[in-house]
Amino acid sequence: MNKAAYTLDVPEDRFDLLDNLSSRPGPLKVMLVGGTDSGKTTLLTFLANGLIERGLRVAVVDSDVGQKGILPPATISLAFPEGSFSSPSELTGVAHYFIGTTSPGQYAGEMAVGVKRLVDIALESADVVLIDTTGFVEGPGAEMKRLKAELVRPDVTVFLERDNELEGLRKLLSPYGDVVSIRVSPKAREHSREQRREVRREKWRAYFSGSALVEVDLENVSIGGTSLFQGRPLTDEEVELLSSLFGWLVLAGWRGRRYTVVKSDVQSFPRGYDRFALHAIDFERLSNLLVGFIDGNGLCLGVGILKWISFSAKKAQVLTPIPPEEIGRAVELRFGRIRVLETGEELGLLRREEL
C-alpha cells in the first residue's frame, strides 16, 4: 500500500510552484513541511517528476522516518531518480543516516544532522534537492524543523496548510530562506493509525526479506546509541551485591558516572533506587531491537534486528539483508529505539533514556 502516487490531477498552484522552482538558479534546496496526511510526499513526487521532465537532475532526501518511502525504515535516505516514478518507494537509496526509530521526537539533533549530511552529498551532483519531512509540526516537531532549516538553509520551504494553521512555523523558518504556502489538496486522504502502521509493516517486511543471521564481533566495532559498554566492567563482588539487593540476575554491568546493568528479574517485589546512581536495563528490551551498521563516515550501511547478545563472549547475532562485504565496512553498531520483527510486526518503541 502506497500513500502517495504520482498524478497530474493536481491543483493549479502546484504547477505554479513547479514553474517557480524550475526558473530559479541551482543548485536549489527545497524543504516540504506539512502536518500528517497533508500530501507532502505526493507533492514531492509531482515536483520531482516535473523537474526531471524539464531536464533537471533531482535528488530526494526522505526524512519522514514515520512513513518512510525509501528503504530502509528508521533512517534518513538519499536517492537520485533516473526517470519518472509514481512513488518514492520505487527509488533506491544511495546513502542513509541512522535514526533508529519511527518516532523521532527525542532525536531532533540526529534528524537535523542527518538531513544536512545527505543534502551536502546531494548538492555535489543535483540541480534540485527535494527534502520530505515528518508530519510532526508542533512543539518539539517545530523545533526539529527549525534545526533542519538552520543547518540546511533551504532556498525555498513549501508549507502545505488547510487553514493557515502553520503560520507560526512559517514565521519561525522564514529567516532561513523563502517560504511558500499552498493549500492542502481537497483530495488529500487521512489515514488511520492502523493504516499507517500497515504501511510501515510492509516496509519492514520488504526490507528484511532475504535476510540472514550474522555474528558481529563486538571487539571489532564500537557500540553507539546506548550506555552499554561504557565505563569499566563490574567486579564479581559488585555483580553479587546488586543481584542480592534487587533480586536480579545481572548479566553484565559497567561503572562510569553511575552503575549500568543489564538484568533479568528473578524475584518479584517493588524496587526503589536512585536512577542517577543506577541504570538498569531489562535484557528482554534488547531482543529484536533495531540496530544500524555505521561506516567510517558516520553514514548507515543498513539496519538489522538484534536477535541475541553475549556479553561474556562479546558477540551479537543480528538479522540483516546487508551483504557480508558491506558489514565488513562497519566501524560502529548503533542501537535504535524500536523493537521489530522481520515479519514487520512492531513490538514497541523505547524511550531514549531506556538504553
UniProtKB/TrEMBL annotation:
Its EC number is 2.7.1.78. Keywords: ATP-binding, Kinase, Nucleotide-binding, Transferase. Its cofactor is a divalent metal cation. InterPro entries: Clp1/Grc3, CLP1_P, P-loop_NTPase. It is an enzyme of class 2 (transferase). One of its GO terms (molecular function) is ATP-dependent polynucleotide 5'-hydroxyl-kinase activity. Residues 34-210 form the Clp1 P-loop domain. GO terms for biological process: RNA processing. It catalyses: a 5'-end dephospho-2'-deoxyribonucleoside-DNA + ATP = a 5'-end 5'-phospho-2'-deoxyribonucleoside-DNA + ADP + H(+); a 5'-end dephospho-ribonucleoside-RNA + ATP = a 5'-end 5'-phospho-ribonucleoside-RNA + ADP + H(+). It comes from Thermococcus siculi. This is polynucleotide 5'-hydroxyl-kinase. It comes from the Archaea. Pfam families: CLP1_P. The keyword Kinase applies. Polynucleotide kinase that can phosphorylate the 5'-hydroxyl groups of both single-stranded RNA (ssRNA) and single-stranded DNA (ssDNA). Exhibits a strong preference for ssRNA. PANTHER family: CLEAVAGE/POLYADENYLATION FACTOR IA SUBUNIT CLP1P, POLYNUCLEOTIDE 5'-HYDROXYL-KINASE NOL9. Signal peptide: none annotated.
